[in-house]
Amino acid sequence: MCLPPEKASELKEIIHNHLLKMDIHGKIREVLAETVKDDQGSSHQPLSEADFVRALQRRGIIDNVMKDLHFTQETATNIGPESPPKPAAHYVDQDSTHIKKTNIDPSRRYLYLQVLGGKAFLEHLQESEPLPGQVCSTFTLYLHFRNQRFRSKPVPCACEPDLKEGFLLEIHRDGFGDGSKMVDATTMLSMCDPVHMVLIKTDTSSETTLVSSYFLDWRTVLSSPSCKTCFAVELMGVGSESKIPAGVLTVSLELFPPLPETLNTDIISTQQSLERQRTAEKERLFLVYAKQWWREFLEIRSSHQSKLVKIFAQDENGVNRPVCSYVRVLRAGRLLESPRQAARFISLLAHERAPVVGGGGKQEQWCTLMAFLCRGKGDCEDHAILLCSLLLGFGLDAYVCVGTKAKGGPHAWVLTRGTDGSITFWESLTAHRYLHQPIDPDAPPLALQPKPSSPYQTVGCVFNHQTFLANCQPSDAVELCVFDLQNQSHWKAMSEEALKSVCAPGSTTSLPPLPPLCAPSLDPAVVSNRLELEMRLLVLEHRKDLDLATVWDDHLSYLLSSALSAYEMERCTGVSCGNEEFQDAVRRAVPDGHTFKGFPIHFLHRNARRAFATCLRKPKVDKTKSY
């Protein structure tokens, strides 16, 4: 077999790294010393190479090397001839354990992050080790670093979880045209982007829980001997438990290729201290400005004290940040094709409020985008922020609105302004859109007034990544509000320069980096077929308990796929199509004297048992008939 030069060098590097990991040189020295000693004790014949190889074989060293050295086949991807090589990182899917490998570019530098195991996850102290094949709760570790996202394979939850994964993170320059150049120590020292680590727990019913969200400063490796270091990372809880340790991960960092000369530890400490001081000073100045701005806002009307004007919000780690810093311009590439498809995508993420221990009402927790995406669910603020970020990426003039819904509960939604002055509300939890037409309170009593079309009751403020506006109109009722945001008598704006000093990307080191959206890791056809088989089995068992026979009509089942496609298209575009063809096909398929009945149910999960239990609770579902 003939290998190209780059493949041969890569193969040599893999073997070399494996031999170093096994400490093969030390083992060879031990065998050599013992062989020489035995040879001197028996005879004075010279030691040949064959004798030495036989000695290695007798001790099983060669067999151990070959047994532990595995090569995984590279998965082919449709990459063009001019596509740049990608880092050799692997991404392990939940439903598969094969490792996908990509090429390493020898002209670039990489950070190899290894998780060597976990300990002190005391919440799982009493949990016993799961039996083979037993369904159990799992931990999954997600990473984000400089526009790269990774995920570990799920491992069973335990006091000492077997979290052992390696991630190869590419360290590249930010300047235009410098992406292919290898970064030096000085450039890496100035990179304040942390490695964002998010630990998610998935229980046996596929419900996810955010365990910890940690920002790792990796630059300590720049001063370590041989550019390699190992240390323990204490993960803290989230929300009300953000001051309580959740567990400890042992982490190893290594630079490839290593630096010719490492930096002094004092230099790195000084750089980190200067970054913290600059960030603290900017945040202090903005807090002073925000207090002055709030006093001016209250002087306009004393009733403004009760309005929902949200300037700061706490993230999952209990850190107070300006609300504008949560919104960023996010482009989805070809993953989402339109603003309405983006709204549909976000509405599929489940809505769940931050858990509260005991009473006391709702706990506030605005998650970072990485934590929200990894968890797959969040509160209305998380949904609205992500939708606003995507709509900004699609070029719309979008804002997050903070106010109340019809029942008086706090709520967040999205507003977009058209070039013609039209105002559209977007409900991020449902993907519904509402055209806003304000009521004129000065109109004559008999004049026709538009009826409220949205479920929102009041609005206190609107904001995006560079604008914050508080509602200073006499009434904060949505139906009376005029969303002429440039009118200073209606909306009081914060200084854009003040907001930019703490909210613009790179303005402070405390801002979480913006993660990219990733392509789906599941095959929809495979997952839907599996779910259909599980649902059929549940229906079969349920009807068997009722002493009923079950016969499946595969042709009619296939016809229903067009209806499901039409429902999905209607949710994405707001336009219904294909209903005539579906009705005609069903009429042809149903025999004379029979009636077809069915209605769609929408789920935000893939748990067949939960879906079937929901269907049984629906009054429209006949539990004794199959169609």
Automatic annotation (TrEMBL):
4Fe-4S as UniProt keyword: no
Chain ranges of the CEP76 N-terminal domain: 10-69
Taxonomic superkingdom: Eukaryota
Described purpose of this protein according to its UniProt entry: Centrosomal protein involved in regulation of centriole duplication. Required to limit centriole duplication to once per cell cycle by preventing centriole reduplication.
The keyword Cell membrane appears for this protein: no
Domain Centrosomal protein of 76 kDa C-terminal, chain residue ranges per copy: 523-620
InterPro entries named in the record: CEP76 (IPR052299), CEP76-C2 (IPR028926), CEP76_C (IPR056288), CEP76_N (IPR056289), CEPT76/DRC7_peptidase-like_dom (IPR056290), Papain-like_cys_pep_sf (IPR038765)
Organism, scientific name: Ilyodon furcidens (goldbreast splitfin)
Family that this chain belongs to: Belongs to the CEP76 family.
Pfam families: CEP76-C2 (PF15627), CEP76_C (PF24652), CEP76_N (PF24654), CEPT76_peptidase (PF24656)
Gene3D superfamilies to which the protein is assigned, alphabetical: 3.10.620.30
Alphabetical list of SUPFAM superfamilies matching this protein: Cysteine proteinases
Residues covered by the CEP76 C2 domain: 103-259
CEP76/DRC7 peptidase-like domain: residues covered: 364-494
Compartment(s) where it occurs, according to its Swiss-Prot or TrEMBL record: Cytoplasm, Cytoskeleton, Microtubule organizing center, Centrosome, Centriole
Keyword tags: Cytoplasm, Cytoskeleton
Protein name (record): Centrosomal protein of 76 kDa
